[in-house]
Amino acid sequence: MSGLKSPHIVVIGAGIGGLTAAALLAHRGYQVLVLEQALVPGGCASTFKRQGFTFDVGATQVAGLEPGGIHHRIFSELEIEIPAATKCDPACAVYLPGETEPINVWRDPQRWQAERQRQFPGSDRFWQLLANLFRYSWAFQSRDPVLPPRNLWDLWQLTKAVRPDTILTLPYTFLTVGDALRIYGLGDDRRLRTFLDLQLKLYSQVDAEETALLYAATALGVSQEPQGLYHLVGSMQVLSDRLVEALERDGGKLLMRHSVDRICVENGKATGVRIRNQKTGEVWTESADIVVANVTAQNLVHLLSGEINEPQRSRTIPQGYRRRVDKLPPASGAFVVYLGVEESAIPPGCPPHLQFLYDGEGPIGENNSLFVSVSHPGDGRAPDGKATITASSFTDVRQWWNCANYDDFKDKYTEEAIARLSQYFHLTPETILHVEAATPRTFAHFTARDRGIVGGIGQRVSTFGPFGFANRTPIKHLWLVGDSTHPGEGTAGVSYSALTVVRQIEADFSRRFS
User: Fold this and answer.
1) Contact 89/107 with Cβ under 8 angstroms?
2) If you write DSSP's letter for every residue of 214-251 in order, what string do you get?
3) Residue 339 — φ and ψ, nearest 5°?
4) Which site in 16, 121, 282, 376 is 20 to 30 Å from 143, CA atoms measured?
């Protein structure tokens, strides 16, 4: 920024995407103010403490810590230490209904291949296709393309990232995983489809029939070396804490308990934000040269809509953008049970992450399944001799806002979840030391995400990659960052999103402020 006037940038939201963008911008010499309505930074990757236990709110595992991975790249640029972590191996142990032995998603590619051959005989060609697509797509993503492009600079970055192997993915652009299964004669393999539905729901928010094939190749391939998933030592909070440390070291500012209730727009340009101090109730408008919104696409529309009695220019948002957001399929929320337990409740050799699908009917989420994360001795989440169990399931947010008796509904879900978990863990009144649950209404309260939705936009063909939501919005000087944008889900995805925003801002504004 030497010789340039430093723009004033306001970042709305201190989730991982917002903090990553803010820390990188501050490190590159910009004036940065981050506004967060919650008590702690991190959003859905934050933590809370109860009775000596530390619980990860939502996200429990990360990708991208390996050399060349997105977190490693960003932490290296910021000159802060990479968080200590253990490798998830298996990345997940998946239990299908009525089965006592899991499908283990091993970190070693050869071991995972052998597991697939044993569990899903006859599916080798399907998995080889996924492996090839992942290899091509990962190499493409590592060259920092901008998707979807919205101006000539974006298009040039996309063009520079293309190689001959990238072209090989084009025939699969409009296919789903369900299409690929049918191509390879696996359309009627219910066990394979059930496994894929479970795994893909975690990453893409939708099942195999709807998930874009190119997205699935990455989501299902990133668990193996040389990439892989990691379990952070301490808690997920270490990611946001270190980003805050870098932000403030480089002159940026973070205000907690400060919410933004409107993005100010004049003549098609973002000019600032209206801020509310949640402690004092004070309201004021902060001018900004650039606004970065680490919110959902639905929240962005709300922030741009303004109030009915305000001038039309204050409520300017292209109707096509609004309609596209309004037409998005209903997003999922999460029901989560947090248990603090005696270590004796955990079976010997229990992996850090498990997924269970249950037979029959039951009030456990959309597909009667639970994704479970378990602490391990020394990982900082529980006192000696104790452990934490976090179990989550996707759920329809509407039922939580429309139910006649919320507390009874929540208790019913909690009791059913514990009963299901007791089929694997030794859960009794003596081994359970703390119980707490979160619903979409909880997530709406603490993260301010619209209706408490989680996980971003479902990665269907119509919303993935070149067809997804761009970081550039139709409003000049306003960027969208986070899990609504490409490449979406997870701390690694939102960090890629943040890096793209930073690169776009530097390209667009270096001349403007010279």
Assistant:
1) yes
2) HHHHHHHHTTSTTS-EEEESS-THHHHHHHHHHHHHTT
3) -120, 130
4) 16
- Omega prior to 90 cis, within 30 of 0: yes
Q: Given CATH 3.40.1000.10, say whether it is the number of domain 8-46+235-328+455-509.
A: no
Are the C-beta atoms of residues 246 and 80 closer than 8 Å to each other?
A: yes
Q: Are 488 and 10 in contact (CB under 8 A)?
A: no
Q: Which residue in 208, 256, 277 sits closest to 43, CA to CA?
A: 256
Instruction: Determine the 3-state secondary structure of 394 from DSSP.
Output: strand
Three-state DSSP at 200 gives helix
Q: Count the neighbouring beta carbons within 10 Å of the beta carbon of residue 77.
A: 15
Residues in the chain, overall count: 514
What is the rounded radius of gyration, in angstroms, for the C-alpha atoms of the chain?
22
Separation CA 343–CA 321 (nearest Å):
51
Joined together, the tokens standing for residue 330 give 């209903």
d(C-alpha 254, C-alpha 251), whole Å: 10
Give the β-pairing of 478-480 and 290-293: parallel
**458 phi/psi in degrees, rounded to 5:** -55, 135
CATH 3.30.519 boundaries in the chain: 332-452
The conformation of residue 207, written as its DSSP 8-state character, comes to -
Task: State how far the Cα of 152 lies from the Cα of 362, in Å rounded to an integer.
Answer: 52
| pLDDT on residue 362 | 62
Low-confidence ranges of the chain (pLDDT < 50): 1-3, 307-314
Neighbouring C-alpha atoms within 13 Å toward the C-beta of 154: 16
| The pLDDT value given to residue 311 | 47
398 CA to centre of own chain:
21
Q: What is the pLDDT of residue 315?
A: 54
Alpha carbons 288 and 8: distance in angstroms, whole number:
5
Identify the H or E element spanning 31: strand 31-36
- The top-level CATH class assigned to 332-452 is alpha beta
Nearest in space to 146 (alpha carbons), one of 508, 505, 503:
503
Q: Rounded to an integer, what distance in angstroms lies between the CA atom of residue 63 and that of residue 311?
A: 45
- What SS3 string covers 286-324? EECCEEEECCCHHHHHHHHHCCCCCCHHHHCCCHHHHHH
Cβ atoms of 334 and 390 closer than 8 Å: no
3-class SS string, 108-122 = CHHHHHHHHHHHCCC
The DSSP bridge pattern shows strands 103-105 and 92-95 to be: antiparallel
pLDDT tens across 388-421, in order?
999 999 999 999 999 999 999 999 999 999 999 9
Residue 111, amino acid: R
Query: Where, residue-wise, is CATH 3.50.50.60 in the chain?
Result: 8-46+235-328+455-509
How far are the Cα atoms of 160, 211, 270, 323, 337 from residue 166, in angstroms, in the given order? Answer: 11, 20, 36, 32, 42
In 3D space, the residue among 483, 458, 456 whose CA is nearest the CA of residue 177 turns out to be 458
